[in-house]
Amino acid sequence: MSIHTFFQWYFRTPIFLRLLLTVSFFMVFFGMIIHFVEPHVFPTIFDGIWWAVITGSTVGYGDLVPVTIIGKILGVLLIIAGGGLVTFYMATVSASTVRYEQDLSQGKVEYRGEEHIIFVGWNERTKQLIDMIQEFAPNENIVLIDNTLDSISYKQYPIHFIQGNGSEDETLIRANIYKARAAIITSDPNMVEKQADQSSILATVAIRGMNNDIFIISEILTKEQIANAKRAGSDTIVRSNDFMSTLFFHSLYRKGRTHPFDTLVKQLSTQQYKQLEVPTELIGETFLHCSFEFLKQEDLLLGIEQAGELKINPPAKTILQEKDNLIVLSPLRQ
C-alpha cells in the first residue's frame, strides 16, 4: 500500500477510529523510544508501551519512571501530545455516542439486520401490535417506517425507527427491505379513507417491487380498493372497518343491555389469536367439521385466510384447502 493510498483510506475512516489509531501510534512510538533511551529502567518494549499508556492517559501509577533528562523530556512531550489526544479521543467518542442516539431516535440510522418485520405507519393499532409482539415474540426485530414522527424513543419502544415515506425506494433501502421477511402496512388515520387506501396500495407496490418474496399484510378501508391491493401484491388484506362496524352493530342491538360493551373487550384480553396452517388431516374437510375439531381442544375457529383474503366466519360448507391458514382464538395458557 502506497503512502497516498494509506492517507486516502485513513481520512475516509470514521473520526473516532482515526483518533484511536493515532493514539495507539503515539503510545507505541514513545514506548519504543523510551525503551531504547533507558533500557535499564524499561527492559522490554512492552514496559515502554505500558509506561506510555499510563503516562499519556494521565493515570500515572509511578511504577516505571524515566531517570535521564532525555527520558524526562520524552515524558513531558508524551503528556502534552498524548494526553491531549487521549482527552480529545474520549470527548469525540462521547459526542459520537450522543449523536448516534439522537440519529437513532430521529430515524436517520440505516437498519442492517435481517429477517425483520417492517411496519409502515404509526398509529394506535401499530402501538398495540408492537406491544403484543414484544409480549409473545420478544425476539422479533421490528422496523418502523413513518413520515409523521420527528422522533421516537427507542428505549420506550424497542424498535428501529426509519423516518420517511414507505413508498419511496430510498426509505425502504434504509429499512433493509431486501432482507425483511414481512411488512405490515396500516392506514394513515390523518387521511380520508380513499386517500389512505391509495397510500397503502402505493406502499405495497413499492415493497413488492423491491422484495418479491416478502409477506405483505395491507389494511384497506374501502371495499372498492381490495382488488387493487391484491393486484399491487398484498398477500393478506385486513378490512378494519368491517370488523369495527360489526362490533358496533352487535353492541347496539344486543338483547340484554345490562352488561357493558367493555365486557367483550375484557374477555378478548384473556384470549390469544393464532394463525395456523391447515392440519393435513383436515385438508378437504368443511369449515364446520374443522370447527368441531378445534372445540375439542377448547379453541375457537374464527375464520380462514384463503387466496390472500381473510374470511371471518365463512359459510359452514367452505372446503379447507392445503394452502389456507386458520385464524384461531385460544385461551391464554400458563
From TrEMBL:
It comes from the Bacteria. The chain crosses the membrane at residues 15-37, 49-66, 73-91. InterPro entries: K_chnl_dom, NAD(P)-bd_dom_sf, RCK_N, Trk_Ktr_HKT_K-transport. It holds the Pfam family Ion_trans_2. Keywords: Ion channel, Ion transport, Membrane, Transmembrane, Transmembrane helix, Transport. It is found in: Cell membrane. GO terms for biological process: monoatomic ion transmembrane transport. The keyword Transport applies. It is a multi-pass membrane protein. Residues 114-238 form the RCK N-terminal domain. This is Potassium channel family protein.
